[in-house]
Amino acid sequence: MTQPDRDVDPALLEVLVCPLTKSALSYQAETNELISYEAGLAFPIRGGIPIMLESEARPLEERERAKPKAATSAAAG
């Protein structure tokens, strides 16, 4: 699967945190989003730029809320 917005600077992903909870984010390659499990939100990445606005985030569905055991941090994305 091609990831057109995968050109997000890894150093930027390493320092980004959830704007609401200040918790670590996980990069979700399938949806090209940064996931905040603590806030229950998925922040989109558009044109290689993470959109870290609560108004632009989508709420996680119930099945997405469980943090995977092997969840990787955004830095590992």
Textual characterization of the structure:
Helix content is 8%, strand content 22%. It is mainly beta and 77 residues long. It starts with 9 loop residues before the first helix and ends in an 18-residue tail after the last strand. It has one domain (1-62): N-terminal domain of TfIIb, CATH 2.20.25. Strands 1, 2, 3, 4 and 5 form a 5-stranded antiparallel beta sheet that branches.
Percent of residues in β-strands: 15-25%
Q: Uncertain runs with pLDDT below 50, 5 residues or more?
A: none
How can the largest sheet be summarized?
A: 5 strands, antiparallel
**Residue-averaged pLDDT:** 84
SSE order and pairing:
Layout: H1 10-15, E1 26-28, E2 33-36, E3 41-46, E4 49-50, E5 58-59
Antiparallel strand pairs: 1-2, 2-3, 3-4, 3-5
Brief digest:
This protein has a single domain (1-62), classed as N-terminal domain of TfIIb (Single Sheet), CATH 2.20.25.10. The chain is built from 1 helix and 5 strands; from the N terminus they run αβββββ. It has one helix at residues 10-15, and strands at 26-28, 33-36, 41-46, 49-50, 58-59.
Question: What structural keywords apply?
Answer:
77 residues, mainly beta, 22% strand
